[in-house]
Design goal:
alpha+beta, 5 strands
Length: 168
């Protein structure tokens, strides 16, 4: 029960960011900034609701969790390793080390010198894993926007799918 409530709250929290984006582009949320003659700036925030906005709120609170439960493939995590320049440099360094390293001295074409690519760790600090996480977050964010806007189409598809399954 606790896990179900936690998953629902997680879906609603991620859906809230998508809902704010929809509200902003639907001009429900209006942000105005102004500067006074004294040089002071002010930021005014105004919300004007219409019938579509109540539909979006209903869609986020009730239809979004149901659609996500019915289509878990929409939220499938994609494990994509982003190959950053640091990862590539480390891989090339290790390749050079394996090919040209003789008796703890690095050499190229007969010249002997200290290792110019002297890394102190086997792994570099890279943003490859962060990029993959951000890619998954962006995917969920965009899927939430699409589901919130087109939720009735997804619900009709679910109903038709269940009816076809019953007849079979």
């Amino acid at each position: 029960m606790f896990r179900l409530a936690f998953n629902y709250l997680k879906i609603i929290a991620l859906g809230f960011f998508s809902l704010v984006t929809i509200f902003y582009f639907n001009e429900t949320i209006q942000i105005n900034s102004s500067t006074t003659a004294m040089g002071q700036s002010s930021l005014s925030f105004k919300m004007t609701y219409n019938y579509w906005d109540y539909y979006f709120i209903f869609s986020m609170l009730f239809l979004l969790p149901y659609v996500i439960h019915q289509f878990p493939i929409l939220y499938k995590k994609h494990i994509s390793k982003v190959n950053t320049y640091k990862d590539r440099a480390m891989r090339l360094h290790n390749q050079d080390l394996n090919q040209n390293h003789n008796n703890r001295v690095w050499s190229v074409n007969g010249s002997r010198m200290n290792n110019p690519y002297g890394y102190s760790f086997a792994e570099t600090q890279s943003y490859g894993e962060l990029s993959g996480s951000l890619l998954n977050f962006l995917q969920r964010y965009l899927v939430n926007i699409v589901v919130i806007i087109f939720a009735p189409i997804f619900i009709v598809f679910i109903i038709v799918k269940k009816l076809i399954k019953k007849d079979s």
